Amino acid sequence: MNFRDLEYLVAVADLGHFGQAAAHCHVSQSALSLQLQKLEAELGVQLIERTSRRVVVSASGRVLVERARAILQSRQELLDDAALELGRMPATVTLGMIPTIAPYQLGPLLGSMKAAYPATTLRIVEDITRNLVAATARGELDAAIIATSTNDSLIAETELGHDELLLVLARKHPLAKERTVLPKQLEDETMLLLKDGHCLSEQAAGYCNLNSVGASRVSIAASIETLKAMVCAGMGITLMPRMAVEAAPKDKALVYLPLKPAPTRSIRVITRKTSRLGPLLAAALKGALRK
């Protein structure tokens, strides 16, 4: 038994497909299947139930998958600690980012990491907040950049900066001529939001609740670009991060206005409390956000 065998087992369990697991592990499907068969023979238990249509992890396999996951996480932390003892960042760091940050801050963050640790490759994974928090806690990610706090006892947080949320209106909207908009002016509007699971939706809804805004709220869009198109079509209004507004080409059909009081979101990097990588990574990224 070796670490690669455990990586193969976890990959098959997570992906539910031999071909996808082999691609994820950068090995041929036949080699992966053979190694898992050898692992089963060595352990004396069936780990994988193979059918013509799908892969099912056995009851015994599920228990061993979690043990394997913990072993692989401990191994990675051991390697990271060894590198840090020598004053080096690990050769590869896997960083998660939420979709409302990644497209607009990827360049500055990559640049900051390269300047601080030129020999380290940064691997990016984009996902919603709850998935990034869970993956960081499990050790699948070294860290993640999110825009909301987490109560996970395994997670440490470091604030990187703040980002204002702007009101987005169609240019023909009656409020488009205002310089600043008050919450009471949003009464009876339709607030368009990203689909459930995106923290930006929770932040927009939270602002409305905090300021007693009686706007109806619709969670429908999967991306900020879709939100913009829906606002252009006159379907409602929305709140959008300033970083997204400033990074994108200006759309003459839209108007972006500040709200008073101004809603903001706190951008933070999260890491496992047990990982010595956290403080170094947070220090490298702090101050890297595009203003």
Characterise the protein shown here.
With 291 residues, the protein is of the alpha/beta class. The protein has 3 domains: 3-82, Arc Repressor Mutant, subunit A; 87-161 and 266-285, D-Maltodextrin-Binding Protein, domain 2, CATH 3.40.190.10; 163-264, D-Maltodextrin-Binding Protein, domain 2, CATH 3.40.190. The protein is built from 10 helices and 11 strands. Strands 3, 4, 5, 6, 9, 10 and 11 form a 7-stranded mixed β-sheet that branches. The N and C termini lie far apart (50 Å). 34% of the residues are buried.
* CATH fold naming of the largest domain: D-Maltodextrin-Binding Protein, domain 2
The major beta sheet can be summarized as: 7 strands, mixed
Question: What's the gyration radius in Å?
Answer: 23 Å
N/C terminus separation = 50 Å
Number of helices: 10
The shape, in one word, is elongated
Helix percentage: 40-55%
Count of all domains: 3
Question: Can you lay out the helices and strands and say which pair or pack?
Answer:
Blueprint: H1 3-15, H2 18-24, H3 29-43, E1 48-50, E2 55-57, H4 59-85, E3 92-97, H5 102-116, E4 121-126, H6 129-138, E5 143-146, E6 155-170, E7 190-194, H7 199-210, E8 216-221, H8 224-232, E9 238-241, H9 242-247, E10 254-257, E11 264-272, H10 277-285
Helix pairs in contact: 1-2, 1-4, 2-3
